Amino acid sequence: MIVAGFGFRAAATPASLHAALSATGVTLPAALAAPADKCAAPAFQAFAADLGLPVIAISPDALAAAETHTRSPRVNAARGTGSVAEAAALSAAGQNARLICPRVVSTDRMATCALAEGMTS
């Protein structure tokens, strides 16, 4: 199962999120993941509805526990992780998940996306 994890600014639009997903090269993951406090954002809800995909809300503790490839000091100070998108994808994909696409940024710089694949034990 491939999960697309997202980080995004309050000003992000559904187009921002589509652009970030498109930059990963994957057209349709199995699910979308984002920090729990961002999942109800109208742009993210519209994006998920457009794709017809389930949304997985990731808790702050789960975000902080994920080992990310990207290490942004600013994001770490704000969210306790190096990359919200990578942490969300890894957390949602399960215990043995692996990152298959590190964080990419939308063309308008409003959203990031990363992909993780759930692994069987």
TrEMBL record:
Q: Does the keyword Transport apply?
A: no
Q: Which residues cross the membrane?
A: none
> Which keywords accompany this UniProt record?
Signal
Signal sequence residues:
1-19
Q: Which residues form the CobE/GbiG C-terminal domain?
A: 2-116
InterPro entries per the UniProt record, alphabetical: CobE/GbiG_C, CobE/GbiG_C_sf
This protein's name? Cobalamin biosynthesis protein
Read off the Pfam families from this record.
CbiG_C
Q: Which domain of life is it from?
A: Bacteria
Per the UniProt record, the source organism is Seohaeicola nanhaiensis
